């Protein structure tokens, strides 16, 4: 059966397999094959594979020793894994129940199956969940060597952004000062800290800040992370401690990051990179964000957009995009 695979030199095979496994991209339903010095690793989501890896289509044998959810239902089994919690998005109750049973009966390591019961809502960006099987909404998610405790009913977290987060993490150098204005449970600042950066994570969600502190301890970087609960605009306005402080700023609040640009400019040091996330119509993906950044910063800084690229599709004709923007005083 033709399957999307990462093709890699055999000598780098195990390192690459582990790298893909850390973000749940290895498709367990097919065998890994070696041929002519190449290793072919089946993947679950080709679009999420890091750009430096080669994705090809190849016939692979089905792994006979494992039962996968798709083997147990008569429709395409679509789901996301966050640790041992599986997330599905099914409107039909019968189909949702059948998929939950298939997931629990498969050979995947599954403790709980959750169905999305609402859109993301409110200031804390959480959603309602229907528990289809198992119990609880807590999970421990592993991503590129870091470990994150999460309660999906209390905090926002998307495993789909793992590759994008890793792209940013690889730019971080030891000794940098990084500020995540909407930090959540720490998927940016914790790997930043593992690379030797001094980090501040701010969030209005008290539960997210509690998990951020726990996750800093889990990953042994609590001495390099300061977690602050509150609206970042109030935090910066109430103290001069972080004014002109940051070498790197993450602004991952794509529906309204433009409302926080004046604060980002206050945080920025003499030479600072802002990772600015936005959601825009396909007719002008980057223009509104770039204009907003220039309006906020050009009175004090030279503004250079170093990277523009789509992260993922968000809705029909809309994209979640990112710009890496350097501010130089």
Using brief descriptors, characterize the structure shown.
329 residues; alpha/beta; Alpha-Beta Plaits; GMP Synthetase, Chain A, domain 3; Rossmann fold; 3 domains; seven-stranded mixed sheet; four-stranded antiparallel sheet; 8 helices; 22% helix; globular; tRNA methyltransferase activity; transferase
Strand order of the largest sheet: 13-12-11-14-15-17-16
Number of domains: 3
- Ends apart, CA distance between termini: 56 Å
CATH class of the largest domain: Alpha Beta
- Helical content (DSSP H or I, runs of 4+): 10-25%
Q: Point out poorly predicted stretches.
A: none
Helix/strand order: EHEEEEEHEEEEHEHEHEHEHEHEE
Task: Predict the CATH topology of the largest domain.
Answer: Rossmann fold
Number of strands: 17
The DSSP helix count reads 8
Keywords: Cytoplasm, Methyltransferase, S-adenosyl-L-methionine, Transferase, tRNA processing
InterPro entries: MeTrfase_TRM5/TYW2, SAM-dependent_MTases_sf, TRM5-TYW2-like_MTfase, TRM5/TYW2-like_N, Trm5a/b_N
GO biological process, one term: tRNA N1-guanine methylation
Pfam families: TRM5-TYW2_MTfase, Trm5_N, TYW2_N_2
Give a verbal description of the structure.
It is a single chain. Helices cover 22% and strands 34% of the residues. The chain is built from 8 helices and 17 strands. The protein has a 7-stranded mixed β-sheet. The longest helix is centred in the N-terminal third of the chain and has 13 residues, at 93-105.
